[in-house]
Amino acid sequence: MITYVLLVLFAATFLVLIIKRDEIAIAAILFSFFSMCYMFLNPEITVFGFGGWSPPFGIVWVLDKLSVFLALLVTGVSSVIAVYSLKYIKERRHRYYTLLSLITIGLLGVSLTGDIFNLYVFFEILSVSSYALVAFFLDEGAIEGAFKYLMVGSVTSLFILIGISMLYGLTGTLNFADLASKISHSNPYMIALGLLVAGFSLKATIIPFHAWKPDAIEGTPAPIGAIFTSISTAIGVYGILRILFIFNLIQLNWVLISFGVITMLVGAFLALVQVNVKRMLAYSGISQIGYIIMVIGFGTLLGITSGLYHILNNALIKTLLFMGIGIGIYLTGKENLDEIGMKSTPLLICVGIGLLSLSGIPPLNGFVSKWLIFMASWEISPILTAIAIIASAITLAYSFKIFSSMFLTTKRIEVKIPKILFIPVVILTILCVLIGVFPQIGLNIIEPAANALLNQNQYITAVLGG
Amino acid sequence: MDIIVRTIVKGLFPFIMLFGVYILLHGHLTPGGSFPGGVIIASGVALIAISFGLRKAERVIKEETAHIIEGLVALLLVLIVLFESFARYVLMPTGMVFELWSAPQVLFLNLAGGVMVSMALILIIFLLMKE
Amino acid sequence: MKGFLFIICLLVLGGMFLYVFLSPMFGLWERKEVANYYLNNSLEMTGSANLVSSIVWDYRGFDTLGEETVLFTAAVGVFTIVIFGMKRRK
Amino acid sequence: MLEIYVGMVLVALIGMYCIVWKKNMIKKVIGLGIFTNSIHLLLIAIGFRAGGIPPIVTRVNANYLALQAVDPLPQALVLTSIVIQLSVTALALGIVTLAYRHMKTLDTERMNRLRG
What we know:
Helix content of chain B: over 70%
Number of domains of chain B: 1
Shape of chain A: globular
Structural class of chain A: mainly alpha
Number of domains of chain A: 1
Oligomer: heterotetramer
Structural class of chain B: mainly alpha
Distance between the termini of chain B: 16 Å
Order of helices and strands of chain A: HHEEHHHHHHHHHHHEHHHEHHH
Radius of gyration of chain B: 17 Å
Number of helices of chain A: 19
Strand content of chain B: under 5%
Shape of chain B: flat
Helix content of chain A: over 70%
């Protein structure tokens, strides 16, 4: 089943430039989303060896609940964005769609792979195509931001390569399950772990590595900004989770908690002072990732569940906000806060719902995961809950700032929103409200994923035991 | 570029190409394979582009054809690698070892990979040289 | 002053690397079960005399497919960036 | 073995220093190349074996190859990572040529001031 998904996706990327029709790429991404939904239904872990080789000798893709949940999220968001950018991108659209489907392949590959070097190769596909997309709009800001992102990104992915070669030197294998059974918690392994986590935390934009994001997002078109803030950060967090899963270190660790808290606060404060809408959303994405990293540092089942739930919600909200504001930028052509006022009630409702759920207002999905986060942090120590509440108060402040500047300012222009741009926004708004009102939908997706993360030997026996 | 470089490049070009194809074809017997072979072929074309200018190099291979060849060969590569367990029946490793046909699958994939590498590099060289 | 500080933390990083590389268990052939498997029976399974090519294209062919797409991405990416840069300047 | 690893770490540090500290864009790209090549050196050094022969099977060394040959797996990883480094450098040089066309300078310091 996986080979058909990959065949369709690879064929789409290679044929869009030749056949010069973008619908192939959209159809391929949608097909991969539906097949991921189908994959999610069968309960047990499926293992697929490429070329028919058995796990430690060939490359293996392992579809346990966590990977399929992330693949579902990734392909879902990129299919919504593929539909949205059909109208949003006006020139050079074939190249845009080639790079978009390459990003989808990279994200899908990183989330489903069971081999550490294959993880690096797909992480590199993802990075190289996002370097190209960052420099898509080619004014001075984009070029400088793209070059900085390229330099920082390739240095950190080289750190990942050093970590991989250390692990190969120490254990002699490249397969996740084989590594997991051979790793001991002695010092050399900890240094390799540190390098790998540092490499992945760049994509997840944790504080020391977050500088590239605002400049990069300022230069990219809005749909790609949505991809960067929502799913490529989710992949960074997933990389950290998978590495800790291999090292069997999913327990209370104060390093992650402190990084999460710093990222949460710094991201929220910086978001408050921004003028450019895209930069503000970028910083807000950074602070949401701070929540997730803090909660993952708890290592408890409730912590992991709330972290994964917040990844899902953050992806939905950020994509909704970027697309809603993208419509504003598309119509007014400007990106600063005080120039994208619009007079259109349907858009007001959708972006309003997105902003409300960003700041965690009860009936919506942001509240559900924020509530889980507060409960998880209450178990560990009340101070963390207090900090989390302060950060979500700041989130409320800057989301109101966006709302007022877009819909309540005096100078608003009469607009008519094109259909293709508006349907994805409506779909995501309905999804946000649905998950907010019936949180059980999200839970029965995320509960098995959190359990899959916590017991490692089930994974090992599935892959190696056969 | 001046006349000396042009005559030398004109003389060397066929041998560079021949050597690149040789490395490509014998990827499974001798060291080297799809990447060194592809790079040597691309460097031959780059020599032509540098010394004779882009118009002459376009006569060797145009940019659009490079795109099309790269897309199609990549598709072929995807088909074989993804369905490798079936492809192995067709491209069975024949009994004879150390001859050209000893590993048809590795040979075929080497060729496809080499063509893709050389087409991609030619594209990048042409694009970076465009004024 | 900042340069000096930066060189210090680079040396610390290098020291960490060296600590791992020179640790006793690093690169021992007893631990390399996968590599010994390739050395012993890759000629029969794939028929190719060059073991590195047999790994690159047969055992880990999917890695090389992924990496050909990286090269394809670079070609498309440079194509996107350079062509538009020129048109805009005219 | 000690001198290979020490050499690799030194080259890696030089590469990192060059990436971070040099102002000119092209020098940063060269520093990236140095850093990547030091990692390839590391990968090959992991597959090292005293008195090892290249992992190519010939009629002569068919029987004693398994005990003499160097480890082929890191060499396959190096092939892959060389091509990845090639594509990152190609993209970086694409961006550098564009930056020079737009802003007539390759010095990242002045580029920051230009953008304000």
